[in-house]
Design brief:
It contains six helices and seven strands; from the N terminus they run βββαβαβαβαβαα. The chain is of the alpha/beta class and about 190 residues long. The protein binds 5-O-phosphono-beta-D-ribofuranose. The site of 5-O-phosphono-beta-D-ribofuranose (RP5) has 10 residues, from β5. The site of 5-O-phosphono-beta-D-ribofuranose has 10 residues, from β5.
Length: about 190
Amino acid sequence: MFRGIKIRICVNPPCGIFRIEKEKRMKVIIIMGSSSDAGVMKGAAEALELFGIEWEARVLSAHRVPGELKKYVEEQAEQDAVCFIAGAGLAAHLPGVIASHTSLPVIGVPVRAAFDGLDALLSIVQMPKGVPVATVGVNNSFNAGLLAVQILSVHVPELKRKLKEFRAKRAEAILQEPKDREVFND
Ligand code: RP5
C-alpha cells in the first residue's frame, strides 16, 4: 500500500540546506450519488487496488444531502485525500459540486441511468471555466481509478513503473491475439 510519500520542497539550491521533508498519506475518495451506482463504481476501487492505492467510498448525493456532502469533502481535503472520484446518473451534479468545494482533482463518472448515460455525461463534462472536472466515459469507473493512479504517479516513481508494466502487459495480450483467418474463428 502507498500509505506515504515523501514530499521534498527545495527552497534554494543546493537542495538539502532548506529542505523540508514530510510524510503524506495518499487516499482516493470515491463518492456516488446513490447506492444504485455501486455496481458501476466498483471498477474505480478495483483499479486503485491493482496499484495498491488506499481508497474510501461513500454514498452522498449533491441534491439529497448537500450539507453532509460539503462537510465530508472539506474534511477529506484537509486530511489525506489527494483526488476525488465521483459517479452519478441523471442530473449528475455530484462531481461538479464536489469540485466547487475543493481544489483537489475531481474525476467524474457518468452513470447510465437514462438516455444511455448521455444526460449524465453532458452534465458532468460541461463545467464552467475555472472549475474543471476530468470526465471519463459512461460507466467507465475503471478508467477513473486509473487516471487517479496516473495523477498520483507524478510524485511516485514506483507507481510510474507499475503503470508502464500494466500497459506493457495489455499490449502483449493484444499482440497474442489470433491472426488472419483465426481472427474470425469462434
Ligand atoms: C442519481 O440518480 C444517482 O447518482 C443515480 O445514478 C440516479 C438514480 O438514483 P436512485 O433513484 O436509484 O437513488 O442521483
